[in-house]
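Collaboration report, partner site 2.

Our partner group contributed sequences for two proteins of shared interest, and the home lab folded both. The records are reproduced in the order in which they were received, starting with the first partner submission.
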Amino acid sequence: MQRPKIIIASVAVAALAAVGGTTAALASGSSASSAAPASSSAPASSARTVSTAQVSVNGKTETILVDAHGMPLYYYQPDTASQSAVTGQLAALWPPLTSSAPTATGLSGKVTAVMDGHGSQVAYNGHLLYTFVTDGPEHVTGQGVQNFFVVTPGIAPLAATSTGTTTPAASAPASPATGGYGY
């Protein structure tokens, strides 16, 4: 009889964390469009700078991509270069970075805006970008959670296949699942 109580308690704690995380993301300076779930009709911001920062990722100092507010940026492994697989409650926890005209500072890769279910979602080297509601500026808490990984400047571009899906380019280094960070 204790299992149902534990499961209910776990779901309640997760729901409270999601609500609190969204509030924290909004309080930290995220725009309403970047903290809103995918079903929001909020307009994309006109410009959002993507840059790099030195932060601790799993106890190791790494150079990662951050948004204009210093929030770490992530990619979702199941995404393709043209389609986000992040919807519903997942999008509430992992808000997409949107901008109709993204800009970049200090990056050699390609920053673009991809029209998808989130509007003009920002992509770096073909990887759609997200923030995580429990992160703070330059504070990574989502590395490896739910198939999300921090984006580094050297992440391999996604290459289109003949079937229209995307795969990492042939020169791609080890997958994040093997302990790397996607670079």
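Second partner submission, folded after the first:
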Amino acid sequence: MPRFAPVSAFALAAALAVALPLTLAPRTSQAQAVAVSITVPPPALPVYAQPVIPGPGYIWTPGYWAWGPYGYYWVPGTWVLPPAVGLLWTPGYWAWADGRYFWHAGYWGPTVGFYGGINYGFGYFGVGFVGGHWDHDRFFYNRAVNNFGHVHITNVYNAPVHNGAVTRVSFNGGRGGTNARPTAAEQAAAQERHADPTSVQAQHERAASQNRAFQASVNHGRPAIGATAHPANFAGAGVVHTHNAATPSGGAPHNAPHQAAAPAHAAPPRAQGAGGPHGAPGGQPHGGPEHGGPEHGGGGGDHGGGGHDHGHP
């Protein structure tokens, strides 16, 4: 099993830029531990576009519903630096079991594991990750599902994904949830050594938990902000508004164009290619009142989305 060595964000960015080999041994994650159990299902995933990548080396982490003292709250998707070269992000997910919804925290590891079959979009279409891959100490981005804007990203390949059934379901199992089960490869990935979410990710979630506008009890499961280019930054440049935001005080919601989801089940090609500075953003699931799906539901009328706050990334 590959071993990795701790590295600071600055050192990692520098290493990714000059392709220095790094090794690291992250501590074992609590990813498989159940952090909270709730009787109310999480709201549907909001519809939003991916913000432009800040620069080379960043990996996309999709938004999710967390739980805290005031119920569910939205944690916007964002770009982050991985804790070490060679690590990929497995998103957390809610799962129904024994009459409750349990949160399974996300983690970093050499392989993307099971995340409930949830279609988070932008490469995380329910199985694996098709937004990019490591080739030794360099991360290559799939142009089809990443938004490069005018940022110069040289490690690029193009692996189009195929449009299919789209969904905003935010939990696994139970009535209205996904029916995905771990594959043998995903079960093997769960046994690998993992690294917990970085301090930047923890700060990002904490900042979201302290923002009343992200609480489902306030936004009715339709937060105004879907994603941000920079963790814990919820205003100004890089912030992306949702397509299906709740209308505040009778005013018109601020809608950002969303990207069509494209569920993909094939792994990205290992061949590398040089890419230009522009990329086509990809895949957040359609949904919401205009795309079918109730305000607190993501595929079936089972999603209540009460209002309360905090989960563990």
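Feedback sent to the partner group on the second submission included the following. The chain is about 10% helix and 20% strand. Residues 1-33, 248-313 have pLDDT under 50 and may be disordered.
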